[in-house]
Amino acid sequence: MSGNTSRLAEAVARERARFADFVRRRLRRISAMDVEDIVADVTYGLLRRANVSGEVENLLAYAYRALENRIIDFRRGTRDTVALDEAEQQGATAGFLQSPSPTPESDVARLELRERLLWALGSLSAAERAVWIATEIEGRSFRELAEDWEEPLGTLLSRKSRATARLRQLLKDHNPL
Question: pTM of the prediction?
Answer without folding.
Answer: 0.41
